[in-house]
Amino acid sequence: MDIDALAALPAALGSADLTATLIAAVAAAAFLAGWVDAVVGGGGLVQLPALLLAFPTATPAQLLATNKLGSIFGTTSATITYYRRVKPDLRTALPMAVAAYVGAIGGAFIGLHIPKSAFNPIILVLLVVVGAYTLFKPSLGTTTALRWDGIRHTGTAVLIGFVIGVYDGALGPGTGSFLVFALVGLLGYAFLQASAKAKIANFATNLGALTVFAPGGHVMWVVGGVLAAANLLGGYVGARTAVRLGSRFVRTVFIVIVSAFIVRIGGQLLGWW
User: Fold this and answer.
1) How far apart are CA 174 and CA 266, in angstroms?
2) Residue 258: is its pLDDT beyond 80?
3) Membrane-crossing residues (predicted)?
4) 107, 209 contact by CB (below 8 A)
5) How many other C-beta atoms can be found within 10 angstroms of the C-beta atom of residue 94?
6) What are 161-198's pLDDT values in tens digits?
7) How far is CA 239 from CA 27, 166, 201, 244, in A?
8) Three-state DSSP string of the chain
9) How far apart are CA 101 and CA 142, in angstroms?
10) Could you count the other beta carbons within 10 Å of the beta carbon of residue 12?
11) How confident is the model at residue 233 (pLDDT cuts 50, 70, 90)?
12) pLDDT band at residue 116 using 50, 70 and 90 as cut-offs
């Protein structure tokens, strides 16, 4: 990584000095985001707030675009690891991913016009609903018990991919968690199988958003490179951890992470920090 380029970035962004400490903090957040995203999804809820804190003068489009650049490397690493070790059914995963890609392109155009102030309230409501449902249904996602098959099953997966793809293109944080939750809650997958399929769809949503953001010049490439390297490593480690420890571990991490995000975002909205 070109240190001179990193040092020159703050001037272009109008932000504070991009010190080695700031670089390390952003990289650490990206590694954690990659790990969380690979295990259960929702890494953007770690990474995007870190970018907001590090670059307060960056535009929403810059933050979303740079977050996507880092995230796609993490989801790529996790997708490959899950595919090799879990063998998700591509007859469901690929149509869902195509729909997610299309949805994310549309969502990205919406995201260009969303104010920063709208991010947290929307995400908080979604997290509370998802977290409460998972917490009060302890059997959810422990085993695979598919509710439908054939066209109905694939069609539901495609609808899930498209709707969450639009959300990911427009906002993004929590997308992986919402994909996992939808696959578990609506289609009946165990958490581990759901995570494997969610990574394929999440890769597609990241790619779809970048299809819009990158040509528009919204990506902060140097910062994105730092995020990408850290996310890649975090995604690899996280996927191997999830595969080794199984669905019960993934469910536990899911509840802990969602709860932490609710406290973090809720506290911020209430002015606690």
Assistant:
1) 15
2) no
3) 38-58, 93-112, 118-136, 157-190, 219-237, 249-270
4) yes
5) 18
6) 999 999 999 887 778 888 988 999 899 998 889 989 99
7) 19, 25, 15, 9
8) CCHHHHHHHHHHHCCCCCCHHHHHHHHHHHHHHHHHHHHCCCCHHHHHHHHHHHCCCCCHHHHHHHHHHHHHHHHHHHHHHHHHHHCCCHHHHHHHHHHHHHHHHHHHHHHCCCCHHHHHHHHHHHHHHHHHHHHCCCCCCCCCCCCCCHHHHHHHHHHHHHHHHHHHHHCCCCHHHHHHHHHHHCCCCCHHHHHHHHHHHHHHHHHHHHHHHCCCCCCCHHHHHHHHHHHHHHHHHHHHHHHHHHHHHHHHHHHHHHHHHHHHHHHHHHCCC
9) 29
10) 9
11) very high
12) low
CB 206 within 8 A of CB 37: no
Two tokens at 230? 């850290």
- Report the distance separating Cα 93 and Cα 18, nearest Å: 40
